[in-house]
Automatic annotation (TrEMBL):
Belongs to the TRAFAC class TrmE-Era-EngA-EngB-Septin-like GTPase superfamily. EngA (Der) GTPase family. HAMAP family: GTPase_Der. Pfam families: KH_dom-like, MMR_HSR1. GTP 1 binds at residues 30-37, 77-81, 139-142. CDD domains: EngA1, EngA2. It comes from Amycolatopsis thermalba. Associates with the 50S ribosomal subunit. Keywords: GTP-binding, Nucleotide-binding, Repeat, Ribosome biogenesis. PROSITE patterns: G_ENGA. Residues 24-187, 197-370 form the EngA-type G domain. This is GTPase Der.
């Protein structure tokens, strides 16, 4: 929460919510060969990070998901950052500086069998200014005899040195306990509401909402009402589609067909917003027989801002002829630029055409909404992408993307940690490539950028 999100997407109405969902970041710093990668592997409890035996080889992966005592956090191995400074001491100090400004806590690793070197001192000097917690690991303490050397590392002024042997796993549990204590608590993620998944059916008046609901519920109302253990809010409807029960939220208004005179539009839009808010996925009904209207666009904007998954249903398809279809394609290309990720289904609530395609589309959208890309996978993809197409230079400076994490789901939210501003066009490029690689059809993807100089 101490980071300033300088550069949210225009779409992103929920940056505060996003910050809440972030998992804390631990950066690991230290001079080469002290055992950072080995220790990162230890922390991860698996051999995901590849230890490079060739000095000077840049690691292509820098960030990973870790978990200890039920707490999730991101571990960043700063060995993968190409430092701009020349000379070992300056380079490592620069990495420490970046780490301190980027992470929620910093773990500095020193080789206890060698003792504090001038480079270690330079790093310590930087980190003593850190506003975030700093932990000191005295690595390569493979046996008891080396413990006496560990005490001398108090001289770095970074507090208590934790003796560990990354290679043999010695005492790393104590270090991890200390790390967990130092990291800020990340609030729990919003969990799925138990029971059927929640669907909102929205669209302008007369688009066919109640007709569709009737078609979907039809004869099977009684079956659905008897689903064991489900209590239904009287304003909701349980609907069985494709072998799965769904909760269509706030359908009372649709059933009663209360279309009264003045002021209705205002109340209808409030009602639409409320329905979207209590849903997980939204079916936006559009009238394919008419041009897209202002009202349609307002509904779409509400959906985009809500961060909910979405399926676009083009209703009244029975009225669409060849000419209209060409016209419609053009209108949709222009009108749906903000929801190009949503699946489109051409239906007719009147005839029942393709109505059964809605359930698979809803399932796909929700699966995307729930999807999480592991941090390691995300960063190996991202580093390749950025190496091939770096961010445009701005004001003579080349912004660097240090690493990324998927900070949350529902909706999927990426946070990119960078050293400079990323233009909207470049963020869109990243989103497009991200979708090409990982899918996410039917779900919005938020990309937040945290700029650190
Ligand atoms: P980095 O450059 O700081 O990431 O260091 P690495 O993790 O690549 O380790 C450098 C070398 O130190 C490797 O040969 C490791 O096997 C070795 N090493 C790492 N941790 C320990 C340890 O606890 N004890 C011993 N004896 N060697 C270690
Ligand atoms: P709502 O206000 O969104 O609930 O819309 P309704 O379900 O009341 O539908 C408004 C009008 O559109 C009614 O006269 C429906 O019969 C008609 N309608 C709904 N769906 C279709 C469709 O797929 N094709 C055609 N031709 N008419 C439809």
């Amino acid at each position: 929460a101490e980071f300033t999100a300088l550069d949210n997407q225009a779409d992103d109405a929920a940056s505060e919510e996003e910050a809440e969902l972030s998992q804390p970041v631990l950066a690991v710093v230290g001079r080469p060969n002290v055992g950072k990668s080995t220790l990162v592997n230890r922390i991860l409890g698996r051999r995901e990070a590849v230890v490079q035996d060739t000095p000077g080889v840049t690691r292509d992966r820098v960030a990973y998901d870790a978990q200890w005592a039920g707490r999730r956090f991101t571990v960043v191995d700063t060995g993968g950052w190409e430092p701009s400074a020349t000379g070992l001491q300056a380079a490592v100090a620069a990495q420490a500086e970046l780490a301190m400004n980027t992470a929620d806590a910093v773990l500095v690793v020193v080789d206890a069998s060698v003792g504090a070197t001038a480079t270690d001192e330079a790093v310590a000097k930087v980190l003593r200014r850190s506003k975030r917690p700093v932990l000191l690991a005295a690595n390569k303490v493979d046996d008891e005899r080396l413990l006496s050397d560990v005490a001398s590392l108090w001289s770095l002024g970074l507090g208590e040195p934790y003796p560990v042997s990354a290679l043999h796993g010695r005492s790393s549990g104590d270090l991890l306990d200390a790390i967990i204590k130092a990291l800020p608590e990340a609030p729990r993620e919003r969990e799925a509401v138990a029971g059927p998944r929640r669907v909102a059916l929205v669209g302008k008046p007369n688009v066919g909402k109640s007709s569709l609901l009737n078609k979907l519920t039809g004869e099977q109302r009684s079956v659905v009402d008897s689903v064991a253990g489900t209590t239904v809010d009287p304003v909701d409807s349980l609907v069985e589609l494709d072998g799965q029960v769904w909760r269509f939220v706030d359908t009372a208004g649709l059933r009663k067909r209360v279309h009264t005179a003045s002021g209705t539009e205002y109340y209808a839009s409030l009602r639409t917003k409320a329905a979207i808010d209590s849903s997980e996925v939204v079916i936006v009904l559009l009238d394919a027989s008419e041009p897209l209207s202002e009202q349609d666009l307002r509904v779409l904007t509400s959906v985009v801002e809500s961060g909910r998954a979405c399926v676009l249903a083009l209703n009244k398809w029975d009225l669409v002829d060849e000419d209209r279809r060409h016209q419609l394609e053009k209108e949709l290309d222009r009108g749906l630029v903000r929801v190009t990720w949503a699946e489109r289904v051409n239906i007719s609530a009147l005839t029942g055409r393709s109505v059964r395609k809605l359930a698979p589309a809803l399932r796909t959208a929700l699966a995307s909404w729930d999807q999480r890309v592991p941090t390691g996978q995300l960063n190996s993809w991202l580093s390749e992408l950025i190496a091939a197409t770096p961010p445009p230079v701005r004001g003579g400076k080349q912004p660097k993307v240090l690493f990324a994490t998927q900070a949350g789901i529902r909706p999927p939210t990426l946070v990119l940690f960078t050293t400079g501003f990323l233009e909207a066009g470049y963020r869109r490029f990243i989103e497009r490539k991200f979708r090409e690689r990982f899918g996410f059809e039917g779900s919005p993807v938020r990309i937040n950028v945290r700029v650190r100089e």
